[in-house]
Every structure is written in structure tokens, then in C-alpha cells.
């Protein structure tokens, strides 16, 4: 299991990469490992807005279904249609297979997320 430096994480195992006021969001390697073979992903369309903690999509695997939770508040700029068309890309590269890109509503919310070291410690607990 791999935890990428330079990303922010949630306790629900989403990751966030910040680029100015744009955030790219996906699920962690730990999450895809726990899910098993991902068979279905449902993502929101561009223009939809979410508050931090809102469910923004669903990921289903051969083991279970799980909601995806927005790490920060924002409006969807783009969804990864490749992930919807070929959900297995999440298993092949959890950090390369982003799910949505959003425009942040409040950049200060990013400070509430976990850094890589803190996230990794939580996985070991």
C-alpha cells in the first residue's frame, strides 16, 4: 500500500491535490485495496456544488459499495469519464486515476485535511 507525499487525505480515504484554487480528488491506494476490484463508479457532472463531507459519488466493487465524500467545499469543474468507463483504472493506479476536479469555495478547509504522514499513521493504528 502506497501513500503519496504532497497530497492531502481524509479519514474516509479520499486524497486531494491542490493547484491554486483547483483541487483534484480521488481515492487512496488503501481505499482501492480494501474495496477490491472496482466495477462501477458514479460521479457528479460539472457545475454541481458540494459542501465538505457531502457524498458526491459512489464506488462499487465485487466486495462492497461505498459513498465518496467531498474533502472540501466546491463546485465540480470536471469528472473523469475514463474512470466511469473503466473503473478498474482506480485499482491499477489510485493516485493517477483522479475522480473529479473542483473549484474550491473555501481554501482554508484544506488545512483541516491530513498530510501524508498523519494519514499513514492512522492506517497503522
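^ C-alpha cells above, recovered residues below v
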Amino acid at each position: 500500500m502506497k501513500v503519496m507525499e504532497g497530497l492531502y487525505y481524509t479519514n474516509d480515504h479520499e486524497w486531494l491535490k491542490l493547484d491554486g484554487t483547483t483541487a483534484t480528488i480521488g481515492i487512496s491506494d488503501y481505499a482501492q485495496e480494501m474495496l477490491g476490484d472496482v466495477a462501477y463508479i458514479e460521479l457528479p457532472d460539472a457545475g454541481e456544488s458540494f459542501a465538505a463531507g457531502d457524498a458526491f459519488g459512489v464506488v462499487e466493487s465485487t466486495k462492497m459499495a461505498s459513498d465518496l465524500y467531498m474533502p472540501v467545499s466546491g463546485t465540480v469543474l470536471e469528472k473523469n469519464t475514463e474512470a466511469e468507463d473503466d473503473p478498474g483504472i482506480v485499482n491499477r493506479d489510485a493516485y493517477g486515476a483522479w475522480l473529479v476536479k473542483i473549484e474550491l469555495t473555501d481554501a482554508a478547509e484544506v488545512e483541516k485535511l491530513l498530510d501524508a504522514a498523519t494519514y499513514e499513521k492512522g492506517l497503522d493504528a
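The chain has a mean pLDDT of 96.
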